[in-house]
Design goal:
The protein is an alpha/beta fold and about 290 residues long. About 40% of the residues lie in helices and about 15% in strands.
Length: about 290
Amino acid sequence: MIIDLHTHSNASDGTDSPSQLIANAIDAGIDILALTDHDTIAGWQEAEAALVSHPKGASLKLVLGSEISCQDRDGTSIHMLGLLFDPNFEPLMQEMEKTRENRLTRMERIVARLNESGIEITMAEVYSQKRDDATLGRPHLADALVARGHIANRDEAFATYLHNGSKFYINHYSPSPIDAIRLIKAAGGVSIIAHPLASRSGRKVEPEIFTELIEAGLDGIEVNHRDNAEDEKSLLLEIARQHNLVVTGSSDYHGTGKMNRLAEFTTSPEEWERLESRARERRVISK
């Protein structure tokens, strides 16, 4: 059984539409797929409709969720995957909306910094790289820089201008990971910290933070991810085992926006069963 619990569509910063993502997952032989766009559930309805209408849709089960942007006390970026939560739980929906709104003002400030350094780009060009209801993010700015000819591709844009240590980087409002976990749990869902050490992408949290996250109700750790180095995977696996947390592996697929391939890392059926059992209700979508 092939289980991929972390993917993105163009409802945030992926390049596949939710329908295309479903079709690609079916073609890839995936059995269980989670759609986890950044701070939004905008792609849920289309993904579910695509699954039901696809002639081979019975081969795939769909897990709906979101990757929620968070920051710890030191401003370190932490991403929390929320799965199987109730989309009608207003406190969680309001928090994600607040984060999305703040992304707009943040993007305006990043664009201004680029312009001040002689890198010409406009907000209109950034907006042209996303669909109307998509969550605005740095990948859209990266695509605009590529289209303008400033850079060759998304990866180069992040390596040169948009990484967290860049002089152009600006934090945006987002909840603490503890608050995000509590909201996900209150909405009946399960929470997984995404690529938590991720030294290969420049994002790294201190292992000590796990104590607070576990106390808040953390359900799992995304251990197997291309941005976690091998020694980091070993450390994360040890933490998960010590605290009886679910171990997941995921692609973090973004379509053509990143090198990540669907199901390049996966979650075992046994760990998925443990994770799903922690949700308040069964919310997996099937044809």
